[in-house]
Design goal:
With about 110 residues, this protein is α+β, with helices and mostly antiparallel strands. The protein contains 3 helices and 4 strands, in the order E-E-H-H-E-E-H. This is Zinc finger C3HC4 RING-type domain-containing protein.
Length: about 110
């Protein structure tokens, strides 16, 4: 059994792993699977259940979730499309040129 730290709801390890993986692959932030429970599982308590790729994906979702929807912008570089924030919480991994900066400034 595995327990969600904030609410204490318990689930079998394999069901919890599959649920978290499905939430991440669908683009969501994992929450407790118990009906109407809004508790968010703590990443640290699931590190041994998930692959490195899924752990990094969860970290990215946590960052994304911390940016208000109104402040989210995506890199206009078609080769990147990374989620960014005007407040600098997430930065684009692509090389930003003066032209891209002008495009981003026009979006505000």
């Amino acid at each position: 059994m595995h327990s969600v730290a904030l609410c204490g709801h318990q689930f079998c390890v394999e069901c919890m792993r599959q649920y978290i993986e499905a939430m991440l692959l669908e683009g969501g932030v994992p929450r407790c699977p118990r009906y109407q429970c809004e508790s968010k599982p703590i990443l640290r308590s699931f590190t041994n259940l998930l692959t490195l790729k899924l752990r990094k994906m969860w970290e990215q979702r946590i960052q994304e979730d911390s940016i208000p929807v109104a402040d989210r912008v995506y890199c206009p570089n078609r080769m990147c499309s990374a989620l960014m924030s005007f407040h600098g919480l997430i930065t684009c991994p692509a090389v930003i040129t003066r032209g891209w900066v002008q495009i981003l400034q026009q979006m505000t």
